[in-house]
Amino acid sequence: MWVACFMTKKPTGIATLDAPAVSPHVYRQDVNQSLEYPIMTRLLSIAVAFLILSGGAMAAEPARIGEIMIEQAWARATPGKAPNGAAYFTLRAEGETADRLVAVASPVAQRTELHTHLMEDGVMKMRAIKAVEVTPGSPTVFQPGGHHVMLMGLKAPLVEGERFPLTLTFERAGSIEIQVEIEKIGAMAPMKGHGGHDSHGHGSHGQGQGS
Ligand SMILES: [Cu+2]
Question: Cα–chain-centroid distance for residue 69?
Fold first, then answer.
């Protein structure tokens, strides 16, 4: 979308630059060479910068460490002074052997923990866990109401549209730093990169508590 907008804007920009003030023919060449051309180049480089920025922000690309794929890393934006946030992703063991996610770390929080939700006495509660299994053949999905990475003591609110680094350490595969895409407050699934999954009505499971 960004691309389309920009591309359609650019020619009009040039056209308007082109149109005025070239009445003295003497200056025409000068205008063409020393003014118009640099501006065009600048527009182009701005276009490229936008492409890079928007391309980067469109979706968290899948990452791989050894035989482990990490997909759809996302988090919810946090309101104002919310102390904690949570991050989610999907892990796949693509080889023959299972692995375990044993540690998580991020510079955006004072403490980063692996958590899950458990039903205790009819109440859904969060618990810290030491590791999460990743088994070949069945993806391990971190999601609201289930496994999540708890970001405790956020140093700044998580802002929709931004991203932050998260380091995952697997027992066998080792460590990798991934980028987590921040979705809107209360989102139940990652929105970008796979066709707007935000709008299929999972919004009322009563788990809207930031994890
Ligand atoms: Cu938690």
Answer: 16
pLDDT in tens, 26-69: 344 444 444 454 555 554 454 444 444 444 444 578 999 999 99
CA–centroid distance, 200 to ligand 1, in Å, is 24
Instruction: Indicate the pairing of strand 132-134 with strand 174-183.
Output: unpaired
Identity of residue 103: A
In sequence order, what are the beta bridge partners of 127?
Answer: 116
Dihedral sign for Cα 140, 198, 180, 50, please. positive
Q: What is the DSSP letter of 97?
A: S
Task: Tell me if the pTM is above 0.70.
Answer: no
The predicted pLDDT at position 56 comes to 41
Q: 202 C-alpha vs ligand 1 centroid, how far in Å?
A: 20
Closest alpha carbon to 60 in 49, 74, 48: 74
- Asked if 168 contacts 126 with a C-beta cutoff of 8 angstroms, the reply is no
Measured in angstroms, how far is the CA atom of residue 110 from the centroid of ligand 1?
14
User: Ligand 1 centroid vs 208 CA: distance in angstroms?
Assistant: 12
User: What does CATH list as the number for 63-183?
Assistant: 2.60.40.1890
Instruction: Please name which of 176, 194, 19 lies closest in space to residue 99, comparing C-alpha atoms.
Output: 176
